[in-house]
Amino acid sequence: MPTWQQLRDVKLSEYTDAADGWGKVSSRANADKDRVDNAMFARIHDTQEGDAAKAACDEVRQLSRNYQYLHTECGLIRTALNGLATELAAPQNKLKRALEDAANLKFTVKPDGSVEYPTDSFVLAPGSNTAQDGAPVPYAPGAGEGVGSADANKGKAEDIAQRIGDAVREATEIDSRYAAVLRKLKAEPGLTVSDATLADAAADTRAMQEAAGRYADDGKIPQGKSPQENAAWWNGLTQEQRDEYATLYPASVGALDGIPSAVRDDANRMVLAETRAQAQLDFNAIPKPPQEYIQNPSGQYPAVIKNPAYRQWEEKYGDRYAELTARKKGMDAIQERFDRSGKSERPGERPLPEAYLLGFDTKGNGHAIVANGNPDTATHTAMYVPGTTSNLEGIGGDIKRMETLWRASDNLANGQSVSTITWLGYDAPQSIVKDAPFSHYADDGAPKLNAFVDGLRASHEGDRTHMTVTGHSYGSTVIGSAARQGHLDADDIFVAGSPGMQVGSATDLDVPKGHVYAAEADSDPYLGGLHLPGGVTDDKYGGFNIPFVTSDPVPDLGGWGHAPKKVDIDILPSWMDGDGESVVKTLTPTNPDFGAHVVATDGSRGHSGYWDNGTESLTNQARVVTGRYKEVTYQ
Amino acid sequence: MTLNEAWTELFGGAPPQQRPAAMTLAGLPSAPGGGGGADLKADEAPWHAAGNTAGELRTSTGTSLTDLDSANDGVTGATAGFDSSAALTEILGTWKTRLTAVRDECGRLEGSLKAAGRDFGEREDATRRKIAAEAPVPPQKKGN
Fold first, then answer.
1. CB distance A11–B79 less than 8 Å?
2. Which of A81, A348, A351, A511 has the most CB atoms in a 10 Å sphere around its CB?
């Protein structure tokens, strides 16, 4: 606990200088981590089979975890020291003002903080008295007691003594708060960075948010602002402030549309590493499931019964076990994508570029935004909105689709840089039957999509470049909703297997005329249409996009599918046009009335084959993504 | 998978026409402790390069150690009476230990990755000789 003399003399710049040193170590560790991942792991990973190669990969991975650990913790120490210095400045100034006042009045501040003052009175004998911090009752503390006193100096001296005492108490509170949090930031001995260590780092971060909240206030991080405003806030910070926000509030910074992708990537990777470690720890804490089926002890039929111990286990841990398993699977898939950086799938292909984790959280079904290549410097950017059933658990497949698109596009890009992004930034419907007929998933996700696209525009370096937004299935509905509700700032739109986009015409989709492309594979089971009695549906263009929702021949329009309906009343008798049925046409993007380019999909089978290697649907998408419009083939 | 395909998948670039030619990698310093040198077999390159990076990281981590020392130098004297300074001194030691361990690990990895590269290179070379002796060189793949 400091004395008032120590508070007066403390050189706070020593703390900020020290903070600079820790900050350098943190930033350097961050850069070094990238070098480990890209210049070491990517080179040796899978170049050789065998135990030796695997051991080397594990060692390199551990090195990467060490740099992650150093980046986080040394960054927090930096913030603690800056926070300490900043907060201590207030009581130090308060003390200095009190000491100045004392000096001006010719009072003496004694070593214990009491204030000796000469008597200033018509009635009292000349001499001197001492004022203590914390004047006794019944008078109010400090200045209060001087009122009405026979000695005019008494109140002034008590006020000064009180201010000195207050300053020291405030400084002591600040000092002990930071000392406690600093002591938590000890490095563990050795070279291992265990899951527990990373989970501790997350706890340290939360503790530091508490302790240093007054210094680095997360209330200053923009919330609900436009990406342009976010970018302006970020650009207005010093580099040190940026580093501090990124290490202290990685989840908030990682989610901030409009700030540089490299910054978001670093912050989100920190969150991913810590969340993944915590999930593993939580998973390990659950007892292993007992054998699910056992032989019937009675020896009678049935021969095998469900193990009662398993039932108990399942009741107690089943949900959590499943949740953590799913979460781990998704996070592992993201890590596996990181590990594929620098690798080629086939001879002659360029290696996969660095990954950028532009969003990550485990809320709800979990969200992740993963880019192949830096969109801030890319000449062509494609972002992909996955559809129904997409969630964090299954992110691996959606990541793979964009790797495939990256390769196909890179092959056509004539050396121009391409970035492809899996954007699972919305809560997708999880059930085709129960959820997908509803529009609210799209309507809620659409503003997030618009903000993300605007964010990419804001964080892009140099001139505006070419951006394509692609969507699969319900993802295309999100895209349509984004254009309907706000402004979707894309140059091209490419949808595959769309159940409708909420708008009835390509011209409603915000992109320039002629820049909407739609793919629908012949055998797509969700889109082929279901012929109903009474001629209500048209089985070529539309029909029941989502089957089994209702058997009502006149369903609530909009309750099924997501395409506006167009009623064609056929007044001609059937002998004149061979039809004679009035139809309700659903204006899905592949309906000629919609006005999109309906592209060839040769080779693509079913609802999920649009990104298969060698398909025309993939190649056409790559052509659009790289702006080679003349080469696009049509149905 | 043919050997040439394996080669390109592993290391990128064009596969060698016949025997792997010695390839000079510009800018690579000689491996420490003899051996290797600037003339490397191409199939050593990824491991050797990773080893080089480890060497650079050793230097970089050493700089961090120096930074911590100089940044914290004098703090205690100029901030007497503050418990935070005592706490800082306590944790400083643990981070210097960690940084030292990381720095040394980089040094160790530098050596072992380069050695592994040489080792794999030799094996690769031996396999290739064996295959070349038993079968004609596989035809070049056309285009990419």
1. yes
2. A81
Residues of A in contact with B112 (CB under 8 A): 56
Q: Do B81 and A59 touch (CB under 8 A)?
A: no
The tens digit of pLDDT for each residue in B57-108 reads 999 999 999 999 999 998 989 999 999 999 999 999 999 999 999 999 999 9
Among A234, A263, A236, A231, smallest CA distance to A250 is for A263
B67 and A CB contact within 8 Å: yes
Q: How many residues can be counted in chain A?
A: 635
What secondary structure does DSSP assign to A349-376, as a single string? Answer: SPPP--EEEEEEE-STT-EEEEEES-TT
What is the residue range of B52's domain? 3-134
Nearest to A182 among B54, B84, B99 (CB): B84
Asked whether the beta carbons of residue B8 and residue A344 sit closer than 8 angstroms, the reply is yes
3-state secondary structure of A423: strand
CB contact under 8 A, A186 and B94: yes
The domains located in chain A, with CATH, are: 347-528+588-631 (3.40.50.1820)
3-state secondary structure of B137: coil
- Min CA distance, A48 vs chain B (Å)? 8
Contact B67 A25 (CB under 8 A): yes
Cβ distance B61 to A32 less than 8 Å, yes or no, reads yes
Three-class SS state of A462: coil
A45: exposed, middle or buried (Cβ count in 10 Å: 0-12, 13-18, 19+) = buried
Q: How far, in Å, are A13, A85, A199, B32, B78 from residue B90 at the CA level?
A: 20, 19, 22, 37, 17
Look-up: residue for tokens 């926000």? A245
Interface contact flag, A47 B11, Cβ < 8 Å: yes
pLDDT-derived band of residue A524, with 50, 70 and 90 as boundaries?
A: low
- Predicted TM-score of the model (pTM): 0.83
Smallest CA–CA distance, residue B5 to chain A, in Å, is 6
A133-192 pLDDT per residue, tens? 876 644 554 445 555 567 888 888 988 999 999 999 999 999 999 999 999 999 999 999
Give me the DSSP letters along B8-66: HHHH-SPPPSSSPPEEE-TTPPPPTTSS--SEEEGGGHHHHHHHHHHHHHHHHHHHHHH
| Bridging pattern class, strands A583-586 and A597-598 | unpaired
Q: Is residue B144 part of a domain?
A: no
pLDDT digits (tens, 9 = 90+) for A303-342: 888 899 999 999 999 999 999 999 999 999 999 999 999 8
Q: Is residue B103 part of a domain?
A: yes
User: Is position B112 within any domain?
Assistant: yes
Tell me if A527 sits within 8 A of A588, measured CB to CB.
yes
Residue B97 lies in a domain: yes
Q: With bands split at pLDDT 50, 70 and 90, how would you rate the model's confidence at A587? A: confident
Beta strands in A154-290 (DSSP E): none
Interface contact flag, A77 B91, Cβ < 8 Å: yes
Asked if the C-beta of A176 comes within 8 angstroms of chain B's C-beta atoms, the answer is: yes
Nearest-CA residue of chain A relative to B107? A63
Give me the residues of B, 14-33, that contact A with CB < 8 A: none
Give the total number of structural domains in chain B.
1
How far apart are alpha carbons A411 and A320 in whole angstroms?
44
- CA–CA separation, A386 vs A427, rounded Å? 10
Round to whole Å and give the CA distance between A104 and A101: 5
Q: Give the number of residues written for chain B.
A: 144
DSSP H/E element including A118: strand A115-118
How far, in whole angstroms, is CA B19 from its chain's centroid? 25
- Name the 3-class secondary structure at A518: strand
Give the side-chain half-sphere CA count within 13 A for A399.
Answer: 30
